[in-house]
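Re: the request from the purification team.
They wanted to know what the chain is likely to look like in 3D before they choose a buffer screen. I agreed to run a prediction and write the result into the notebook, where they can find it.
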Amino acid sequence: MTQNPETAPLNPTEGADRTALDQGTYEQLRTVRSENRLELDGTWHQISPRYVVSQVVQNVIFIVVVAIAASVLALGFEQTWAWIPAGAIVLVTLITLIILPRQAKAIGYMLRADDIVFRKGILWQRMIAVPYGRMQLVDITQGPLDRAFGVSQLKMVTAAATTGVQIPGLTQAAAEALRDTLIQVAETRRTGL
């Protein structure tokens, strides 16, 4: 005896193939969560020196692209004015490359009992304290060259846009450990959300 679809019980698992969700997909999710937790000890931690190498390679690629574009415009289309903006862009990028190692040494973070403190800057120094309970999202991002050099960027998002923090140049293991620690501590310190 068949049941009328309108009077059939509303059991979502009845008559459904449970394996249909996993057919044709990957066998296992790639998990990157680490089980190690960082101490909230109040000591400053630095970023990886590989960050500087990654940034130098990215900026050299950028300079080459700008030079090729200016060459094509100047030589191929007789637009000699293209050398002026290209030269300015290359000059600014070279100055950035010169101060990059010192800037990288000025980047650091400290895990304290109630918040994480992030510092950066040489002349214009910035120090931000983000309370654990106000964190809404902790994200790790990597570009192709960052992945090749083994560095990541950790981004913390809060309700206030001005207190969002991005820590560049972390090793993959440090970024994962920091993310796991921040998530675990933030879950225990939610404040009025």
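For the purification team: The CA atoms of residues 115 and 130 lie 5 Å apart.
Please add any questions underneath this entry.
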